[in-house]
Design a protein that fits this description.
Blueprint: E1 29-31, E2 49-51, E3 57-59, H1 65-77, E4 82-85, E5 90-91, E6 126-128, H2 139-151, E7 155-161, E8 169-170, E9 173-174, H3 200-206, H4 220-235, E10 240-244, H5 251-264, E11 268-271, H6 278-285, E12 290-292, H7 294-304, H8 320-323, E13 328-331, H9 350-361, E14 365-368, H10 382-394, E15 399-404, E16 408-413, E17 418-422, E18 428-433, E19 440-443, E20 451-452, E21 458-463, E22 467-473, E23 495-502, E24 509-515, E25 527-528, E26 530-532, E27 536-543, E28 548-555, E29 562-563, E30 569-570
Helix pairs in contact: 1-2, 4-5, 9-10
Length: about 575
Protein backbone atom coordinates (compact mmCIF):
# COMPACT_ATOMS: atom_id res chain seq x y z
CA UNK A 1 0.00 0.00 0.00
CA UNK A 2 1.34 3.42 -0.94
CA UNK A 3 1.99 6.14 1.58
CA UNK A 4 -0.75 8.68 2.23
CA UNK A 5 -0.12 12.38 1.81
CA UNK A 6 -2.89 13.34 4.20
CA UNK A 7 -1.09 13.67 7.51
CA UNK A 8 0.80 16.82 6.61
CA UNK A 9 -1.29 19.15 8.74
CA UNK A 10 -1.60 19.17 12.53
CA UNK A 11 -4.73 17.61 13.98
CA UNK A 12 -5.22 20.84 15.88
CA UNK A 13 -4.22 24.45 15.64
CA UNK A 14 -6.15 25.57 18.73
CA UNK A 15 -4.77 23.74 21.74
CA UNK A 16 -6.65 20.57 22.67
CA UNK A 17 -9.40 19.95 20.16
CA UNK A 18 -12.81 20.33 21.76
CA UNK A 19 -14.41 17.53 19.79
CA UNK A 20 -17.30 16.77 22.10
CA UNK A 21 -19.31 19.75 23.20
CA UNK A 22 -22.72 20.58 24.54
CA UNK A 23 -22.25 24.24 23.65
CA UNK A 24 -21.83 26.11 20.39
CA UNK A 25 -18.05 25.93 20.06
CA UNK A 26 -15.63 25.36 17.22
CA UNK A 27 -15.21 21.68 18.01
CA UNK A 28 -15.80 18.80 15.68
CA UNK A 29 -18.87 17.87 17.70
CA UNK A 30 -20.92 20.97 18.32
CA UNK A 31 -24.45 21.95 19.16
CA UNK A 32 -26.83 23.06 16.46
CA UNK A 33 -28.51 25.49 18.85
CA UNK A 34 -31.98 24.61 17.54
CA UNK A 35 -34.99 26.01 19.37
CA UNK A 36 -38.23 24.09 19.68
CA UNK A 37 -41.77 24.97 20.65
CA UNK A 38 -44.09 27.56 19.26
CA UNK A 39 -45.14 29.67 22.22
CA UNK A 40 -43.43 32.12 24.47
CA UNK A 41 -43.99 29.91 27.49
CA UNK A 42 -42.97 26.65 25.81
CA UNK A 43 -39.96 24.97 27.43
CA UNK A 44 -37.02 24.78 25.02
CA UNK A 45 -35.46 21.40 24.48
CA UNK A 46 -31.80 20.88 25.41
CA UNK A 47 -29.39 21.82 22.64
CA UNK A 48 -28.78 18.93 20.27
CA UNK A 49 -25.14 17.88 19.85
CA UNK A 50 -24.28 17.27 16.23
CA UNK A 51 -21.52 15.15 14.75
CA UNK A 52 -19.46 17.32 12.45
CA UNK A 53 -17.40 15.71 9.73
CA UNK A 54 -13.88 14.50 10.39
CA UNK A 55 -14.11 13.01 13.88
CA UNK A 56 -13.34 9.31 14.43
CA UNK A 57 -14.37 7.53 17.65
CA UNK A 58 -13.26 4.14 18.96
CA UNK A 59 -15.09 1.81 21.34
CA UNK A 60 -12.48 0.72 23.90
CA UNK A 61 -14.07 -2.05 25.99
CA UNK A 62 -13.05 -4.94 28.24
CA UNK A 63 -10.04 -3.17 29.77
CA UNK A 64 -9.06 -1.57 33.05
CA UNK A 65 -8.43 2.17 33.20
CA UNK A 66 -4.68 1.69 33.63
CA UNK A 67 -4.53 -0.54 30.55
CA UNK A 68 -6.36 2.05 28.47
CA UNK A 69 -4.07 4.80 29.74
CA UNK A 70 -1.01 2.78 28.73
CA UNK A 71 -2.48 2.39 25.25
CA UNK A 72 -3.23 6.09 24.71
CA UNK A 73 -0.09 6.73 22.60
CA UNK A 74 -1.13 3.94 20.23
CA UNK A 75 -4.64 5.41 19.97
CA UNK A 76 -3.12 8.79 19.18
CA UNK A 77 -0.81 7.30 16.56
CA UNK A 78 -3.85 5.74 14.88
CA UNK A 79 -5.51 9.16 14.75
CA UNK A 80 -8.39 8.36 17.10
CA UNK A 81 -10.23 11.49 18.28
CA UNK A 82 -12.49 10.04 20.98
CA UNK A 83 -12.98 6.78 22.86
CA UNK A 84 -16.10 5.27 24.41
CA UNK A 85 -15.55 3.33 27.65
CA UNK A 86 -17.79 1.30 29.96
CA UNK A 87 -19.73 2.63 32.93
CA UNK A 88 -17.69 3.49 36.03
CA UNK A 89 -19.63 2.37 39.10
CA UNK A 90 -19.50 -0.43 41.64
CA UNK A 91 -21.24 -3.33 39.95
CA UNK A 92 -22.48 -6.85 40.48
CA UNK A 93 -19.98 -8.70 38.25
CA UNK A 94 -16.19 -8.88 38.17
CA UNK A 95 -13.80 -10.22 35.56
CA UNK A 96 -13.96 -13.75 37.02
CA UNK A 97 -17.75 -13.81 36.56
CA UNK A 98 -17.61 -13.44 32.76
CA UNK A 99 -17.67 -16.05 30.01
CA UNK A 100 -14.38 -15.67 28.16
CA UNK A 101 -11.52 -17.54 26.57
CA UNK A 102 -13.30 -20.89 26.50
CA UNK A 103 -14.71 -20.71 30.04
CA UNK A 104 -18.30 -19.97 31.07
CA UNK A 105 -18.92 -17.41 33.80
CA UNK A 106 -21.80 -16.60 36.13
CA UNK A 107 -24.23 -16.71 33.20
CA UNK A 108 -24.11 -19.79 31.01
CA UNK A 109 -23.89 -17.86 27.75
CA UNK A 110 -21.37 -16.12 25.49
CA UNK A 111 -21.22 -12.86 23.57
CA UNK A 112 -22.22 -12.58 19.88
CA UNK A 113 -18.51 -13.19 19.19
CA UNK A 114 -18.43 -16.42 21.17
CA UNK A 115 -15.60 -16.65 23.66
CA UNK A 116 -13.57 -13.89 21.97
CA UNK A 117 -15.18 -11.11 24.06
CA UNK A 118 -15.87 -11.16 27.82
CA UNK A 119 -19.60 -11.61 28.43
CA UNK A 120 -21.70 -10.03 29.71
CA UNK A 121 -19.73 -6.78 29.54
CA UNK A 122 -18.82 -5.44 32.97
CA UNK A 123 -20.62 -2.32 34.12
CA UNK A 124 -24.18 -2.88 32.98
CA UNK A 125 -25.52 -4.18 36.31
CA UNK A 126 -24.57 -1.30 38.61
CA UNK A 127 -24.98 -1.60 42.36
CA UNK A 128 -23.96 1.84 43.69
CA UNK A 129 -23.86 4.97 41.50
CA UNK A 130 -22.18 6.97 44.26
CA UNK A 131 -19.10 4.71 44.19
CA UNK A 132 -17.03 5.16 41.02
CA UNK A 133 -14.45 2.59 42.10
CA UNK A 134 -15.32 -0.33 39.84
CA UNK A 135 -14.02 -3.50 38.26
CA UNK A 136 -12.15 -1.24 35.82
CA UNK A 137 -10.22 0.51 38.59
CA UNK A 138 -10.55 3.42 40.97
CA UNK A 139 -12.07 6.82 40.26
CA UNK A 140 -8.57 8.30 40.52
CA UNK A 141 -7.32 5.88 37.86
CA UNK A 142 -10.23 6.82 35.60
CA UNK A 143 -9.44 10.50 36.06
CA UNK A 144 -5.78 9.82 35.24
CA UNK A 145 -6.78 7.95 32.09
CA UNK A 146 -9.00 10.82 30.98
CA UNK A 147 -6.18 13.30 31.59
CA UNK A 148 -3.80 11.13 29.54
CA UNK A 149 -6.32 11.03 26.71
CA UNK A 150 -6.70 14.80 26.79
CA UNK A 151 -2.93 15.23 26.67
CA UNK A 152 -3.01 13.34 23.36
CA UNK A 153 -6.04 15.21 21.94
CA UNK A 154 -8.39 12.30 22.62
CA UNK A 155 -11.71 12.83 24.34
CA UNK A 156 -13.62 10.35 26.46
CA UNK A 157 -17.25 9.22 26.23
CA UNK A 158 -18.43 7.42 29.37
CA UNK A 159 -21.27 4.89 29.42
CA UNK A 160 -24.25 5.66 31.66
CA UNK A 161 -26.88 3.11 32.73
CA UNK A 162 -30.02 5.07 33.67
CA UNK A 163 -32.65 2.45 32.86
CA UNK A 164 -31.98 -0.13 35.55
CA UNK A 165 -29.76 -1.48 38.32
CA UNK A 166 -28.43 -4.97 39.10
CA UNK A 167 -30.72 -7.91 39.75
CA UNK A 168 -31.02 -9.19 43.32
CA UNK A 169 -29.10 -12.42 42.69
CA UNK A 170 -25.33 -12.31 42.39
CA UNK A 171 -22.19 -14.45 42.47
CA UNK A 172 -21.84 -13.80 46.21
CA UNK A 173 -25.52 -14.07 47.12
CA UNK A 174 -28.17 -11.37 47.44
CA UNK A 175 -27.25 -8.01 45.90
CA UNK A 176 -28.19 -4.94 47.93
CA UNK A 177 -28.54 -1.47 46.39
CA UNK A 178 -27.29 1.10 48.95
CA UNK A 179 -29.04 4.03 47.24
CA UNK A 180 -32.37 2.41 46.39
CA UNK A 181 -35.26 0.42 47.76
CA UNK A 182 -36.27 -2.34 45.33
CA UNK A 183 -39.96 -1.84 46.18
CA UNK A 184 -40.06 1.96 46.22
CA UNK A 185 -37.79 3.05 43.36
CA UNK A 186 -38.52 0.54 40.60
CA UNK A 187 -41.48 -0.60 38.54
CA UNK A 188 -43.04 -4.01 39.19
CA UNK A 189 -44.69 -4.72 35.84
CA UNK A 190 -42.90 -7.89 34.79
CA UNK A 191 -40.21 -8.47 32.16
CA UNK A 192 -40.50 -7.25 28.58
CA UNK A 193 -41.22 -10.14 26.22
CA UNK A 194 -42.02 -12.52 29.08
CA UNK A 195 -44.59 -11.57 31.71
CA UNK A 196 -44.91 -7.82 31.05
CA UNK A 197 -48.32 -6.58 32.27
CA UNK A 198 -48.35 -3.49 30.07
CA UNK A 199 -48.88 -2.76 26.37
CA UNK A 200 -47.46 -0.42 23.77
CA UNK A 201 -45.13 2.38 24.86
CA UNK A 202 -45.68 1.68 28.54
CA UNK A 203 -44.35 -1.85 28.06
CA UNK A 204 -41.17 -0.53 26.40
CA UNK A 205 -40.50 1.99 29.13
CA UNK A 206 -41.89 0.48 32.33
CA UNK A 207 -41.32 -3.28 32.06
CA UNK A 208 -37.96 -4.76 33.01
CA UNK A 209 -35.42 -5.27 30.24
CA UNK A 210 -33.86 -8.74 30.45
CA UNK A 211 -35.17 -9.04 34.00
CA UNK A 212 -33.17 -6.00 35.18
CA UNK A 213 -35.20 -3.82 37.60
CA UNK A 214 -36.52 -0.80 35.70
CA UNK A 215 -36.39 2.60 37.42
CA UNK A 216 -39.50 4.60 38.25
CA UNK A 217 -38.16 7.72 36.56
CA UNK A 218 -40.88 9.95 38.02
CA UNK A 219 -39.46 9.31 41.48
CA UNK A 220 -37.59 12.41 42.67
CA UNK A 221 -34.97 10.37 44.54
CA UNK A 222 -34.12 8.43 41.37
CA UNK A 223 -33.75 11.71 39.48
CA UNK A 224 -31.50 13.15 42.20
CA UNK A 225 -29.22 10.11 42.16
CA UNK A 226 -28.92 10.28 38.37
CA UNK A 227 -28.12 14.01 38.56
CA UNK A 228 -25.41 13.40 41.17
CA UNK A 229 -23.95 10.61 39.05
CA UNK A 230 -23.69 12.75 35.91
CA UNK A 231 -22.07 15.46 38.02
CA UNK A 232 -19.42 13.02 39.24
CA UNK A 233 -18.63 11.96 35.68
CA UNK A 234 -18.29 15.58 34.59
CA UNK A 235 -16.04 16.33 37.57
CA UNK A 236 -13.65 13.58 36.45
CA UNK A 237 -13.19 15.42 33.16
CA UNK A 238 -15.26 13.22 30.83
CA UNK A 239 -16.35 14.84 27.59
CA UNK A 240 -19.49 12.90 26.72
CA UNK A 241 -22.06 10.28 27.66
CA UNK A 242 -23.39 7.16 25.99
CA UNK A 243 -26.82 6.23 27.33
CA UNK A 244 -27.22 2.48 27.61
CA UNK A 245 -30.68 1.03 26.73
CA UNK A 246 -31.92 4.54 25.88
CA UNK A 247 -34.80 3.07 23.89
CA UNK A 248 -36.29 1.82 27.16
CA UNK A 249 -36.27 5.22 28.88
CA UNK A 250 -39.17 7.62 28.37
CA UNK A 251 -38.10 10.40 25.93
CA UNK A 252 -39.46 13.03 28.34
CA UNK A 253 -36.82 11.99 30.88
CA UNK A 254 -34.04 12.77 28.46
CA UNK A 255 -35.63 16.06 27.47
CA UNK A 256 -36.39 17.42 30.91
CA UNK A 257 -33.75 15.71 33.05
CA UNK A 258 -30.72 13.91 31.61
CA UNK A 259 -30.02 15.94 28.47
CA UNK A 260 -30.91 19.21 30.15
CA UNK A 261 -28.38 18.47 32.88
CA UNK A 262 -25.77 17.16 30.42
CA UNK A 263 -26.15 20.43 28.53
CA UNK A 264 -25.39 22.37 31.70
CA UNK A 265 -22.40 20.10 32.41
CA UNK A 266 -21.08 20.53 28.85
CA UNK A 267 -21.32 16.79 28.14
CA UNK A 268 -21.91 15.52 24.61
CA UNK A 269 -24.25 12.51 24.38
CA UNK A 270 -25.37 9.61 22.24
CA UNK A 271 -28.22 7.20 22.92
CA UNK A 272 -28.51 3.48 22.28
CA UNK A 273 -32.00 3.17 20.82
CA UNK A 274 -31.91 -0.34 19.42
CA UNK A 275 -34.62 0.12 16.82
CA UNK A 276 -34.70 0.02 13.03
CA UNK A 277 -37.41 2.71 12.70
CA UNK A 278 -35.71 5.96 11.70
CA UNK A 279 -38.62 8.08 12.91
CA UNK A 280 -38.43 6.58 16.40
CA UNK A 281 -34.70 7.26 16.57
CA UNK A 282 -35.27 10.85 15.50
CA UNK A 283 -37.82 11.22 18.30
CA UNK A 284 -35.00 10.52 20.75
CA UNK A 285 -32.56 12.73 18.86
CA UNK A 286 -35.03 15.57 19.22
CA UNK A 287 -34.69 15.38 23.01
CA UNK A 288 -31.12 16.69 22.65
CA UNK A 289 -28.74 13.89 21.69
CA UNK A 290 -27.27 11.94 18.82
CA UNK A 291 -28.26 8.30 18.28
CA UNK A 292 -26.56 5.13 17.11
CA UNK A 293 -27.75 4.48 13.56
CA UNK A 294 -29.16 0.96 13.87
CA UNK A 295 -31.13 1.20 10.60
CA UNK A 296 -27.88 1.96 8.74
CA UNK A 297 -26.16 -0.90 10.58
CA UNK A 298 -28.89 -3.22 9.30
CA UNK A 299 -28.31 -1.97 5.75
CA UNK A 300 -24.52 -2.39 6.15
CA UNK A 301 -24.87 -6.04 7.14
CA UNK A 302 -27.21 -6.64 4.19
CA UNK A 303 -24.93 -4.90 1.69
CA UNK A 304 -21.63 -6.44 2.77
CA UNK A 305 -22.98 -9.97 3.25
CA UNK A 306 -23.76 -10.46 -0.44
CA UNK A 307 -26.73 -8.11 -0.78
CA UNK A 308 -26.82 -4.96 -2.86
CA UNK A 309 -24.67 -1.90 -2.21
CA UNK A 310 -27.70 0.10 -3.36
CA UNK A 311 -29.05 -0.45 0.19
CA UNK A 312 -26.51 2.14 1.37
CA UNK A 313 -27.31 4.80 -1.20
CA UNK A 314 -29.10 8.10 -0.84
CA UNK A 315 -31.99 6.71 -2.88
CA UNK A 316 -32.53 3.81 -0.47
CA UNK A 317 -32.14 6.18 2.51
CA UNK A 318 -32.46 3.50 5.15
CA UNK A 319 -30.52 5.24 7.91
CA UNK A 320 -30.69 8.18 10.29
CA UNK A 321 -27.59 9.38 8.45
CA UNK A 322 -29.70 9.86 5.32
CA UNK A 323 -32.32 11.94 7.16
CA UNK A 324 -30.23 13.87 9.69
CA UNK A 325 -26.52 13.07 9.33
CA UNK A 326 -25.63 15.43 12.18
CA UNK A 327 -27.63 13.22 14.58
CA UNK A 328 -26.15 9.88 13.44
CA UNK A 329 -23.38 7.88 15.08
CA UNK A 330 -22.58 5.15 12.58
CA UNK A 331 -21.05 1.74 13.28
CA UNK A 332 -20.26 -1.60 11.66
CA UNK A 333 -20.46 -3.62 14.87
CA UNK A 334 -20.27 -3.19 18.63
CA UNK A 335 -20.11 -5.33 21.77
CA UNK A 336 -23.73 -6.41 21.26
CA UNK A 337 -23.77 -6.87 17.48
CA UNK A 338 -21.53 -8.56 14.92
CA UNK A 339 -20.47 -7.03 11.65
CA UNK A 340 -20.99 -8.48 8.17
CA UNK A 341 -19.59 -11.97 7.68
CA UNK A 342 -18.65 -12.42 11.35
CA UNK A 343 -19.14 -15.81 12.99
CA UNK A 344 -18.63 -16.89 16.58
CA UNK A 345 -14.97 -17.40 17.48
CA UNK A 346 -13.81 -16.33 14.00
CA UNK A 347 -11.99 -13.03 13.56
CA UNK A 348 -13.46 -10.25 11.47
CA UNK A 349 -12.71 -10.56 7.77
CA UNK A 350 -12.62 -8.42 4.67
CA UNK A 351 -16.35 -7.61 4.82
CA UNK A 352 -15.86 -5.75 8.10
CA UNK A 353 -12.86 -3.86 6.69
CA UNK A 354 -14.88 -2.83 3.62
CA UNK A 355 -17.76 -1.72 5.82
CA UNK A 356 -15.37 0.32 8.00
CA UNK A 357 -14.04 2.02 4.86
CA UNK A 358 -17.64 2.99 4.16
CA UNK A 359 -18.55 4.44 7.58
CA UNK A 360 -15.19 6.22 7.92
CA UNK A 361 -15.80 8.14 4.69
CA UNK A 362 -19.59 8.54 4.76
CA UNK A 363 -21.66 11.09 6.66
CA UNK A 364 -22.23 10.78 10.42
CA UNK A 365 -19.74 10.19 13.21
CA UNK A 366 -18.10 6.74 12.85
CA UNK A 367 -17.60 4.58 15.96
CA UNK A 368 -15.17 1.70 15.33
CA UNK A 369 -15.15 -1.55 17.30
CA UNK A 370 -13.25 -4.82 16.88
CA UNK A 371 -13.65 -7.94 18.99
CA UNK A 372 -10.81 -9.66 20.82
CA UNK A 373 -9.45 -7.26 23.45
CA UNK A 374 -6.08 -8.97 23.77
CA UNK A 375 -4.23 -7.06 21.04
CA UNK A 376 -6.40 -4.48 19.19
CA UNK A 377 -4.15 -4.98 16.16
CA UNK A 378 -6.28 -2.62 14.05
CA UNK A 379 -4.62 0.27 15.91
CA UNK A 380 -1.34 -0.65 14.19
CA UNK A 381 -2.85 -1.43 10.77
CA UNK A 382 -1.58 1.09 8.20
CA UNK A 383 -4.68 0.62 6.04
CA UNK A 384 -6.81 1.57 9.04
CA UNK A 385 -4.55 4.56 9.76
CA UNK A 386 -4.96 5.71 6.16
CA UNK A 387 -8.75 5.54 6.35
CA UNK A 388 -8.81 7.46 9.63
CA UNK A 389 -6.62 10.14 8.07
CA UNK A 390 -8.87 10.33 4.99
CA UNK A 391 -11.91 10.61 7.26
CA UNK A 392 -10.41 13.50 9.19
CA UNK A 393 -8.96 15.42 6.26
CA UNK A 394 -11.37 14.85 3.41
CA UNK A 395 -14.67 13.17 4.40
CA UNK A 396 -16.50 16.47 4.72
CA UNK A 397 -19.67 17.79 3.16
CA UNK A 398 -22.90 16.46 1.69
CA UNK A 399 -22.95 12.93 0.27
CA UNK A 400 -23.64 12.77 -3.48
CA UNK A 401 -24.25 9.39 -5.13
CA UNK A 402 -22.09 9.03 -8.27
CA UNK A 403 -22.63 5.34 -9.08
CA UNK A 404 -24.29 2.44 -7.33
CA UNK A 405 -24.99 -1.19 -8.26
CA UNK A 406 -25.12 -4.52 -6.46
CA UNK A 407 -21.35 -4.76 -5.96
CA UNK A 408 -20.01 -1.21 -5.87
CA UNK A 409 -20.84 2.23 -4.58
CA UNK A 410 -19.13 5.46 -5.65
CA UNK A 411 -20.03 8.61 -3.73
CA UNK A 412 -18.61 12.09 -3.37
CA UNK A 413 -18.29 14.25 -0.29
CA UNK A 414 -19.25 17.44 -2.12
CA UNK A 415 -15.98 18.60 -3.67
CA UNK A 416 -13.71 17.05 -1.03
CA UNK A 417 -13.54 13.31 -1.61
CA UNK A 418 -14.54 10.76 -4.26
CA UNK A 419 -14.90 7.35 -2.59
CA UNK A 420 -15.39 4.02 -4.30
CA UNK A 421 -15.99 0.66 -2.57
CA UNK A 422 -16.20 -2.67 -4.38
CA UNK A 423 -17.38 -5.95 -2.84
CA UNK A 424 -16.92 -8.01 -6.02
CA UNK A 425 -14.10 -10.55 -6.33
CA UNK A 426 -13.06 -8.81 -9.55
CA UNK A 427 -11.89 -5.23 -10.06
CA UNK A 428 -14.53 -2.93 -11.53
CA UNK A 429 -14.30 0.22 -13.66
CA UNK A 430 -16.84 3.04 -13.62
CA UNK A 431 -17.00 6.42 -15.33
CA UNK A 432 -18.64 8.91 -12.99
CA UNK A 433 -19.47 12.57 -12.73
CA UNK A 434 -17.39 14.58 -10.26
CA UNK A 435 -17.21 18.12 -8.91
CA UNK A 436 -13.84 18.74 -10.62
CA UNK A 437 -13.01 19.61 -14.24
CA UNK A 438 -9.64 19.09 -15.92
CA UNK A 439 -8.01 18.08 -12.67
CA UNK A 440 -5.82 15.25 -11.41
CA UNK A 441 -7.27 13.08 -8.65
CA UNK A 442 -5.04 11.02 -6.35
CA UNK A 443 -6.05 7.97 -4.30
CA UNK A 444 -5.08 8.83 -0.73
CA UNK A 445 -5.03 5.16 0.27
CA UNK A 446 -2.63 4.13 -2.51
CA UNK A 447 -4.93 1.51 -4.03
CA UNK A 448 -5.56 3.21 -7.37
CA UNK A 449 -3.58 5.10 -10.01
CA UNK A 450 -4.07 8.81 -10.46
CA UNK A 451 -6.98 9.76 -12.71
CA UNK A 452 -7.85 12.83 -14.74
CA UNK A 453 -11.23 14.51 -14.90
CA UNK A 454 -12.27 15.87 -18.31
CA UNK A 455 -13.83 19.20 -19.21
CA UNK A 456 -17.26 17.90 -18.24
CA UNK A 457 -16.07 16.71 -14.84
CA UNK A 458 -16.12 13.00 -15.62
CA UNK A 459 -13.48 10.53 -14.44
CA UNK A 460 -12.95 6.81 -14.94
CA UNK A 461 -12.08 4.90 -11.78
CA UNK A 462 -10.87 1.36 -11.31
CA UNK A 463 -11.75 -0.04 -7.89
CA UNK A 464 -9.76 -3.13 -6.88
CA UNK A 465 -11.42 -6.43 -6.07
CA UNK A 466 -12.89 -6.35 -2.55
CA UNK A 467 -11.25 -2.99 -2.06
CA UNK A 468 -11.63 0.75 -2.07
CA UNK A 469 -10.22 3.96 -3.54
CA UNK A 470 -10.35 7.43 -1.96
CA UNK A 471 -9.65 10.17 -4.51
CA UNK A 472 -8.93 13.84 -3.84
CA UNK A 473 -7.49 16.61 -6.03
CA UNK A 474 -3.69 16.59 -6.05
CA UNK A 475 -0.58 15.47 -7.81
CA UNK A 476 0.39 11.78 -7.89
CA UNK A 477 3.33 10.60 -5.78
CA UNK A 478 6.36 10.23 -8.07
CA UNK A 479 7.94 7.66 -5.79
CA UNK A 480 10.77 9.75 -4.33
CA UNK A 481 8.76 10.56 -1.17
CA UNK A 482 9.66 14.23 -1.24
CA UNK A 483 6.58 15.74 -2.84
CA UNK A 484 8.31 17.30 -5.88
CA UNK A 485 7.76 16.48 -9.55
CA UNK A 486 11.05 14.82 -10.42
CA UNK A 487 12.06 11.18 -10.29
CA UNK A 488 15.19 11.71 -8.24
CA UNK A 489 15.53 10.42 -4.72
CA UNK A 490 15.92 13.62 -2.70
CA UNK A 491 16.78 12.06 0.62
CA UNK A 492 20.08 13.95 0.36
CA UNK A 493 18.16 17.20 0.95
CA UNK A 494 17.56 16.15 4.55
CA UNK A 495 19.92 17.96 6.87
CA UNK A 496 20.41 18.58 10.56
CA UNK A 497 18.47 21.63 11.69
CA UNK A 498 18.32 23.26 15.13
CA UNK A 499 14.93 24.78 15.89
CA UNK A 500 14.71 27.44 18.62
CA UNK A 501 12.08 29.58 20.31
CA UNK A 502 12.44 32.13 23.08
CA UNK A 503 9.56 31.81 25.50
CA UNK A 504 9.09 31.69 29.26
CA UNK A 505 7.11 28.87 30.89
CA UNK A 506 6.17 28.05 34.46
CA UNK A 507 8.36 25.95 36.75
CA UNK A 508 7.71 22.27 36.06
CA UNK A 509 6.80 22.92 32.43
CA UNK A 510 8.75 22.46 29.20
CA UNK A 511 8.46 23.42 25.56
CA UNK A 512 7.84 20.60 23.08
CA UNK A 513 8.55 20.75 19.35
CA UNK A 514 6.16 19.01 16.95
CA UNK A 515 5.75 18.99 13.19
CA UNK A 516 5.15 17.06 10.00
CA UNK A 517 7.93 14.49 10.44
CA UNK A 518 8.05 11.24 12.37
CA UNK A 519 10.90 12.57 14.50
CA UNK A 520 8.67 15.49 15.49
CA UNK A 521 5.81 13.03 16.28
CA UNK A 522 3.71 14.03 13.24
CA UNK A 523 1.79 16.79 15.01
CA UNK A 524 1.25 14.83 18.21
CA UNK A 525 2.67 15.71 21.64
CA UNK A 526 6.12 16.61 20.33
CA UNK A 527 9.66 16.07 21.61
CA UNK A 528 10.91 17.96 24.64
CA UNK A 529 13.22 20.87 23.97
CA UNK A 530 16.37 21.75 25.89
CA UNK A 531 16.40 25.00 27.90
CA UNK A 532 19.32 27.36 27.45
CA UNK A 533 20.14 30.73 28.98
CA UNK A 534 17.74 33.51 28.07
CA UNK A 535 14.69 31.19 28.06
CA UNK A 536 15.69 29.80 24.68
CA UNK A 537 14.35 26.30 24.01
CA UNK A 538 15.89 24.26 21.24
CA UNK A 539 15.90 20.87 19.59
CA UNK A 540 18.00 19.45 16.74
CA UNK A 541 16.31 17.25 14.14
CA UNK A 542 16.90 15.89 10.65
CA UNK A 543 14.50 17.47 8.15
CA UNK A 544 14.22 18.68 4.58
CA UNK A 545 12.88 21.93 3.13
CA UNK A 546 9.28 20.72 3.42
CA UNK A 547 9.46 20.85 7.21
CA UNK A 548 6.62 22.57 9.07
CA UNK A 549 6.73 22.83 12.84
CA UNK A 550 5.28 24.43 15.90
CA UNK A 551 5.64 24.28 19.69
CA UNK A 552 3.45 22.97 22.48
CA UNK A 553 3.70 23.50 26.23
CA UNK A 554 3.36 20.73 28.78
CA UNK A 555 4.66 19.16 32.00
CA UNK A 556 8.38 18.38 32.10
CA UNK A 557 9.25 14.81 31.08
CA UNK A 558 5.76 14.27 29.72
CA UNK A 559 4.20 15.62 26.51
CA UNK A 560 3.01 18.90 25.08
CA UNK A 561 -0.69 19.66 25.44
CA UNK A 562 -1.10 23.43 24.90
CA UNK A 563 -0.55 24.64 21.35
CA UNK A 564 1.38 27.70 20.22
CA UNK A 565 -0.95 30.18 18.54
CA UNK A 566 -0.72 31.26 14.92
CA UNK A 567 0.62 29.72 11.73
CA UNK A 568 3.03 26.81 11.38
CA UNK A 569 6.73 27.65 11.11
CA UNK A 570 8.71 26.58 8.06
CA UNK A 571 12.13 24.99 7.63
CA UNK A 572 13.58 28.44 6.96
CA UNK A 573 12.31 29.76 10.30
CA UNK A 574 14.77 28.20 12.72
CA UNK A 575 14.35 30.85 15.45
CA UNK A 576 11.02 32.62 14.85
CA UNK A 577 9.22 34.91 17.25
CA UNK A 578 7.03 32.82 19.51
CA UNK A 579 3.33 33.51 18.86
CA UNK A 580 2.07 32.90 22.39
CA UNK A 581 0.03 30.04 23.85
CA UNK A 582 -3.56 29.23 23.02
CA UNK A 583 -4.68 29.31 26.66
CA UNK A 584 -3.34 32.82 27.27
Amino acid sequence: MGDNNNRDQPRSTVGRRTLLSAGATLGALTVAGCSFGGTENAQALPDQPTADDGTVAYQYFHAEWTEIEADVPRLADAGIDAIWVQQPARGKLGWDDLSYDGEYGYYDETSPYGFRDPHPPVGYQPVDLSDLDSTFGTADELESMIEACHAHDIEVIVDVVANHMATADGPDGEVELPQFDRDEHFHDNGTLGEDCQLDGEEAEYECDLLGLPSFDLENSHVQDVHADYLGQIADLGADGLRYDAAGHIWPWYFESELNALADDLDLWRVGEVWDYDVERLLEFADTGMTVFDFPLYDAIVDAFEGGSMAELSQDAARGVVHERPEAAVTFVQNHDTVGPGVDEDEPEGRAVELAEAFVLTYAGLPMVYRSGPENRSELEDEAFHDLVAVSQEFAHGEVIDRHVDDDSYVYERDGNLLAGINTDEQAVTHTVQTAWTNETLVDQTGHGDGVETDGDGQATLEIPAEGWVMYTPGEPDDGDDNGDDDDEDDTGDTEERTLRVTVDVEYGESVYFTGNTAELTEWNGGIEGTWTEGNVWEVTVDADDDLEWKTRRGPTDDTGDVWERGENHTAAETHPTHQGWEDE
